[in-house]
Amino acid sequence: MDKDIADKILNAVDANFDKQTAFLSELVGHPSTRGQEQAAQGFMAKALLARGMLVDRWQINLDDIRHLPGFSPVIGSYDDAVNVVGTHKSRTASGRSLILNGHIDIVPAGPLDMWDAPPFLPRVEGDWMYGRGAGDMKAGLVANLFALDALRAEGFAPAADLYFQSVVEEECTGNGALACLQRGYKADAVLIPEPFDETLVKAQTGVIWFQVHLEGLPTHVAYAGDGANAIEAAIPLINALHGLEKRWNAPECRHHDFAHHEHALNLNVGKIVGGDWPSSVPAWCVFDVRMGIFPGQDLEAARKDIEATLLKAAEENSFLRDNKPKIVYHGFMAEGYALSDDKSEPALSAIQTLGEAHKAVNDKALEQMAITCTTDTRFYGLYANTPALVYGPHAEAIHGFNERVSLESMKRVTKTTALFIANWCGLEEI
Ligand code: ZN
C-alpha cells in the first residue's frame, strides 16, 4: 500500500479516537453478562446500520448447531442468545475476504464491594478505562469498528466482502461463533482482538467444563458415620482431579507450543454448593470444574480419563462407594487450536500481513505467544479451514476486579487492524 495512504489512515484513527473512547465507554455501560446481551447487541447493530452495513440479527437455535463439531452442551434455552453480524459487500471483490469477530458477552462482575468503583459505570483514569468487559473484549470489538471508520474517513472501503461479527456465548461455550459458521459466514481469514497484549496468539488450550453431582441419604449429625457427608466426599474427588491435572501437564503430553510451559493446563473448581443447614449431614453436593486440554488432545479420550479418575477415587471412599458421583457436561467442550500448525498459504500470508501492519505502527516485530485459555478462533481454524488470528489490546484484571484496558494500546491495535484490513482485503473507493 502507498505510504501516503497508510499515513492518512493512521491519522484518521488519531482524529477519531475521542469518539472511539466515548463509544467504548457507552458499550461498557451495557452489562452484557450471559443472558443480558440484548441492549449491547442493539447498540452494536445500530452502529453497524449507521455505517451502511447489512445487519443480520438472529436468535441462536440449538437444533441448528447441536450436531456440529465444536458444539458445547448447554442447560437451558437460548431464548435470549442473539448474534449480530454486519456485512460489507464489496463493489469490486478484488481482494481477500475477512471476518472481524468479537464477543459481546462478559463474565459476571462478582461481589460489587470488591470493586473500587461500580463495574458498569466505566471511568477513565490516565491511560486506563475501567469496567467489566472493557478489556475482555469490548475494546477489541470497538477497535474493529473504528478501524473500518478510519478507512471510510479517507474515502475507502475494503475491496472484498467483510463480515463484522458481534457474538454471544464466548465465555461459556463458543456456540455464538459456531452459529455464525452454521449460518454460512465464511471468509479467507478471521481476526479476533482478544486482549493479549498486542501479540499474535499462535496456540491456545482447549477447555472442558463439567459438574460433579454427589447424592446420598441424609442423616442426623448425632448418628453420622465416618465419611457419610456429601460435601466432605467432594474433597478426595477434587484431589484426584488435581492428580489428573498433573499427569496431563507432564512434559511428554505437551503440545510443542507449550513445551516450556510447566503448567499450561489448569484445573479450577469454580463453584461448589451443597447441604441444607448445620445440623443435617449434607445429602448432596455439586461442584463445577473447568479443565484445560492441549491442542491435538482428543476430547472423547479426555472425558473418559476424567470419568475414570473420578470413579476410581469414588471406590476408595466410604460414602462415594455406595453413591457414585454423576458427571454432567455443560458449557465448554472446546478443543485446543494452534495457528502455528496451519502451514497453508492463507495462514502464512495472514500472519505475514498482520506482522507488517504491526511493524508499521510499532516499529518492531510482532511477537507470538501460546495462551492457556480458549477463544472463538478454534471454530474457524478447526472446522472451517480458515486461519484465525487473535491480536488485541493490553488489558489487566480481565475476569477479576477493577478490570481495565489501556486506551493507547487500543489505539495502536485499531491502527494495526486498519492497515491489516487495507492490505488483506485491498481498498476500493467508496
Ligand atoms: Zn474474551
Write a structural description.
This protein is an alpha+beta fold and 430 residues long. It has two domains: 3-204 and 336-429, Aminopeptidase (3-Layer(aba) Sandwich); 206-334, Alpha-Beta Plaits. The protein has helices spanning 3-15, 17-28, 38-50, 62-65, 134-153, 175-182, 230-248, 299-315, 318-322, 345-362, 377-383, 407-425; strands at residues 54-59, 82-88, 98-103, 123-125, 128-130, 156-158, 162-167, 190-192, 200-204, 206-215, 219-220, 267-274, 280-281, 284-293, 326-334, 337-338, 368-371, 388-390, 395-396, 404-406, 427-429. α1 packs across α5 and α7 (230-248) packs across α8. Bound molecules: zinc ion. Residues 103, 136-137, 170, 194 line the site of zinc ion.
N-to-C CA distance = 17 Å
Please state the average pLDDT score.
95
- Bound ligand species: zinc ion
Helix content: 25-40%
Second-tier CATH architecture of the largest domain: 3-Layer(aba) Sandwich
The CATH homologous superfamily of the largest domain is termed: Zn peptidases
Q: Which runs of at least 5 residues are low in confidence (pLDDT < 50)?
A: none
Task: Report strand order across the widest sheet.
Answer: 1-2-7-3-8-18
Shape: elongated
Give the oligomer, counting copies of the same chain as homo and different chains as hetero: single chain
Number of domains: 2
Task: Tell me the total number of β-strands.
Answer: 21
**Radius of gyration over C-alpha positions, nearest whole angstrom:** 23 Å
| CATH hierarchy, class of the largest domain | Alpha Beta
The CATH topology of the largest domain is Aminopeptidase
- Total number of helical segments? 12
The portion of residues forming beta strands comes to 15-25%
Structural class: alpha+beta
Largest sheet: 6 strands, mixed
